[in-house]
Amino acid sequence: MTTKKMAIIATKGTLDMAYPPFILASTAAALGYEVQVFFTFYGLQLLRKDLTNVMISPLANPAMPMPVPMPVMVQMLPGMESMATMMMKQKLKKHGVASLQELRDLCLEAEVKFVACQMTVDLFEFDKSEFIDNVEYGGAATFLGFAGDTDICLFI
Amino acid sequence: MNFDKEFDASGLSCPLPILKTKKALADMASGQVLKVLATDSGAIKDMQAFADQTGNTLLATEESGGKYTFYMKKK
User: Fold this and answer.
1) What are the structural domains, with CATH classification, of chain A?
2) In degrees rounded to 5, what are phi and psi of residue B60?
3) Using one digit for the tens of pLDDT, what is the confidence trace for A47-67?
4) CA of A97: which chain B residue's CA is closest?
5) How far is it, in rounded angstroms, from Cα A111 to Cα A130?
6) Domains in chain B, please, with CATH?
7) Does A35 reach chain B within 8 Å, measured CB to CB?
8) Residues of B in contact with A6 (CB under 8 A)
9) Residue A9 pairs with which residues in a beta bridge?
10) Mean pLDDT, to the nearest integer, of A9-28?
11) Distance (Å, rounded) from C-alpha A33 to C-alpha B50?
12) ipTM for the whole complex
């Protein structure tokens, strides 16, 4: 049986959007897939050694369930983003959902390959030393070289 | 049912029960049976899907009062 492959492009750097790539990548690896995740634009934030600044905002996110209805004017106030993030993290923990850090570690342990988009690293002037070590750097052609042979390819 | 190893994934949500099952199976021998306890109702379908895709055999699934027990035989 040939090894199945999955490629994911992770483009978002918010707490909610960070979960799908790490969940799918770690699970696919557990199912025997060879997995590569290509991080570009805001997705690069998910490669930082320190993930505590990965946040969620209720602002412009009307689908986000809130304990009490909150007018947009209130959502704009300073500290609301931190509060929403703290509440979401508590909720995730309460429901036994792994932290991002844990899922990322499980990905690495399962040999999921992380590729960072060199162009957007340069564009945002990110310091590679702030990223975890297990990252390769490449561009669109690098991604397509792997993605062209995959069974599943997702843009998140 | 007889089993060779067991672990408790109670309180853990998707995908942790699956990832931890995979890990637990890693150091077991072919034919041995792993017992997994879980409370994630999504695990019922997921454990079967895991078995189908990895060649391991889900021998049985038991449910009692929101607690699930799975018996997975390593291929």
Assistant:
1) 5-55+100-155 (3.40.1260.10)
2) -160, 150
3) 999 999 999 998 888 888 888
4) B13
5) 21
6) 5-73 (3.30.110.40)
7) no
8) none
9) A38, A155
10) 97
11) 12
12) 0.86
